[in-house]
Automatic annotation (TrEMBL), chain A:
One of its GO terms (cellular component) is mitochondrial small ribosomal subunit. Keywords: Mitochondrion, Ribonucleoprotein, Ribosomal protein. The keyword tRNA processing does not apply. It comes from the Eukaryota. It is found in: Mitochondrion. GO terms for molecular function: structural constituent of ribosome. SMART domains: Ribosomal_S10. Belongs to the universal ribosomal protein uS10 family. GO terms for biological process: translation. Residues 77-174 form the Small ribosomal subunit protein uS10 domain. This is Small ribosomal subunit protein uS10m.
UniProtKB/TrEMBL annotation, chain B:
The lineage of its organism: Eukaryota, Metazoa, Chordata, Craniata, Vertebrata. Residues 44-71 are annotated as: Disordered. Residues 181-252 form the Small ribosomal subunit protein mS35 mitochondrial conserved domain. One of its GO terms (biological process) is mitochondrial translation. It comes from Mauremys mutica (yellowpond turtle). This is Small ribosomal subunit protein mS35 mitochondrial conserved domain-containing protein.
Length: 208, 343
């Protein structure tokens, strides 16, 4: 089971605006203010909201809205690995239903081929080289690809998925985040800073 | 009874037994008070025979007074109960809480798999009894408030690329083990299309040369993978710094770039090439042999036939030999040398 610690804090941000370079906040650094017990295992702390349905969210006192722009994920790929295929089947059903309920579009669900790791060991602790024992470890995979998620939705969905990850199952999440071009790459700086360049070249010449 | 209760100070399960024992009489009072700390005045204490007898009768009393296990909870469950109250969270399988006739395990010879009572296989396997569809829907309705919607403007990949040209790819790992950390989690991959960057021709070629293998010509994507820093945030900053440096360096023109030879060129340029010289020489000599009006090289260059020839030669060299290319080259050559008779 993933070690999620005591409290997980979630930021829900407004729509990504123009101009400012979006900073992806690590949600756990935020000071905790609200605590909402969903069920015994889940401890959620929510912040911020989407600015169009402000009125609806004002009723729910646990949501607060911030101006920080939301991150955008073009694709979220969830790969689960386990030793038992039936457990992965059930987990996939759960993850797909959760995604549908939360309104997340699923791009593809596929099952990469299983991998079997086999090794041969001596059966006895001393001599008897001809008598060996063979072990194998079977790893089954299941990949769920989701597309077009906002940062808040992704955080919510991933936390829900990860808290309900069964024992003996591991997960890898690949996030593809969209970002604007930073301002310092819009135009080359060499036209604007001739004096700096000259002094720099002058320093180089005098140095050598 | 009051005196007896005075000598008993702790409220232990033995209390009912002791009270029952008390009813037997003063002799039994002596026996049962061996477990209490009260002083018994004027008695020598129980003899070994009496102690053994007391133990036997005590065990039979314990056996008599033991609370029998009641009917399993499954029999008391209503058919229309809310299952979320039975399994609200992840819990081990309890056969008396799950009203299903499940059998699991390897069947005995000419038999069936073992039933659920005392079945270790059912307890070992992770169950999803707490994640039934109604429970999932209930969780999701509560979670829906904290989700934001994807902006409807960005419904296709092209629009995403147009507004957000850079893609950052990170991987998170979740697994059980001695440590929560995974060293692979610090790798950051930055992908950007060069057409979205503000680059001129020379800058683009220089950037491609600087970057080498990290650029893919077919998709026009530059991929920068960083993992030299210990933290993901640092790797991301380093990746952005690399992109900035590459961009600005490619706009600079160094002194030694004048020494670029033909071998360094990425694509074929027709101007000042042997092909141009040969073609123009040939045309001038044809004109001279036919003794028509002298035409200068500049006029020849500007003429349509020579332009056509130029485009076909450039296409052949840069894109390789395709059927279309070769046919066009043939047509341009025939027009250049006025060889309509061969067609």
């Amino acid at each position: 089971m993933a070690a999620w610690g005591g409290v997980s804090r979630l930021w829900r941000r407004g729509c990504q605006g123009l101009g400012t370079f979006p900073v992806n906040y690590s949600s756990r650094d935020m000071p905790k203010q609200y605590r909402f017990l969903l069920n015994k295992d889940l401890l959620w702390v929510q912040f911020s909201g989407f600015h169009t349905d402000l009125h609806h969210h004002k009723d729910n006192s646990l949501i607060s809205i911030s101006d920080e722009p939301d991150t955008l994920y073009r694709k979220l790929s969830v790969l689960v690995k386990g030793h038992d295929k039936t457990v992965l089947d059930s987990y996939e059903y759960f993850a797909v239903l959760a995604a549908k309920e939360l309104g997340i579009s699923i791009e593809k669900i596929h099952e990469p081929p299983r991998k079997i790791e086999r090794f041969t060991l001596l059966k006895s602790i001393h001599i008897f080289k001809k008598h060996r024992v063979q072990y194998e470890m079977r790893t089954h995979y299941r990949c769920l690809e989701l597309k077009h998620l906002t940062g808040s939705t992704a955080d919510v969905y991933l936390e829900y998925i990860q808290r309900n990850l069964p024992e003996g199952v591991a997960m890898e999440i690949k996030k593809t985040k969209l970002e604007k071009l930073p301002e310092h790459i819009q135009k080359p700086i060499w036209d604007k800073l001739p004096s700096v360049e000259e002094t720099a070249t002058g320093a180089l010449e005098t140095g050598h | 009874m009051a005196a007896a209760s005075g000598c008993l100070f702790c409220a232990r399960p033995m209390l009912p037994r002791l009270c029952a024992g008390l009813a037997a009489g003063p002799r039994s009072l002596l026996r049962v008070s061996a477990y209490s700390t009260a002083l018994v005045v004027g008695s020598a204490g129980p003899s070994p025979g009496q102690v053994a007898a007391s133990r036997r009768s005590r065990t039979s009393q314990i056996a008599r007074n033991r609370r029998l296990p009641g009917a399993p909870r499954t029999e008391k469950m209503a058919v229309d109960q809310y299952w979320g109250n039975v399994y609200p969270t992840a819990a081990a399988f309890n056969p008396s809480s799950v009203p299903l006739p499940i059998r699991m395990g390897y069947p005995v010879k000419r038999g069936v798999p073992p039933p659920k009572e005392g079945n270790l296989e059912l307890i070992k396997i992770p169950n999803f009894l707490h994640l039934t569809p109604p429970a999932i829907k209930k969780h999701c309705t509560a979670l829906k408030d904290f989700c934001t919607e994807w902006p409807t403007v960005l419904d296709s990949d092209e629009k995403c690329e147009q507004h957000f040209p850079i893609e950052i790819e990170t991987v998170d790992y979740v697994s059980a083990g001695p440590s929560v950390r995974n060293p692979k989690a610090r790798v950051v991959t930055l992908r950007v299309k060069l057409s979205k960057l503000n680059l001129d021709d020379h800058a683009k070629k220089k950037l491609i040369k600087l970057v080498g293998e990290r650029y893919c010509k077919d998709t026009d994507i530059l991929t920068i993978t960083t993992d030299r820093c210990p933290l993901r945030r640092q790797n991301y900053d380093y990746g952005v710094y690399l992109l900035t440096v590459l961009y600005h360096e490619s706009w600079k023109t160094e002194m030694w770039e004048n020494e670029k030879t033909e071998a360094d060129m990425e694509e074929y340029i027709w101007d000042n090439s042997p092909s141009q010289k040969n073609a123009l020489d040939t045309l001038v000599r044809i004109r001279a042999a036919e003794k028509t009006t002298e035409v200068t090289k500049e006029e020849l260059l500007a003429s349509e036939i020579v332009e056509n020839y130029k485009t076909t030669v450039v296409a052949l060299k840069n894109e390789g030999e395709t059927e279309n290319n070769i046919l066009q080259y043939k047509e341009s050559v025939t027009k250049l040398l006025n060889l309509q008779a061969l067609q």
